[in-house]
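Here is this case:
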Amino acid sequence: MATIQDLVNGIQGIQGLDGYVIVRQDGQVLSHNVANVESLSALIVMGSLNGNIVKTEVGASLFKHFVVARKTNERLLVFSIGNLWLGLLQRKDTYTPDIVNKVQSMIHGLRGL
């Protein structure tokens, strides 16, 4: 069974990220390496809850991730992993689809989160 530390190790192995926040669906932050964890975790929870509502309304069976982008090319990527949400701060100079593919591959390699 994978642990939160296994997830953190996987995140740290992905180039192109400036930080991460791992949040339970009840809003409890389990791990992070960012200075503004309170505002980011709130954004992750609210965005994910709304993503789940959209998923239900359109009849989709799966909510994998969403991206919040700013005009400055800064991005917050949020992934749904079981009962956890993983928020990642993407570096400005990286290509979002590459990061998404790497993260999804890493998540797929973990079992039991």
In short: The chain is about 40% helix and 25% strand. The beta strands are 17-24, 29-32, 65-69, 75-81, 84-90.
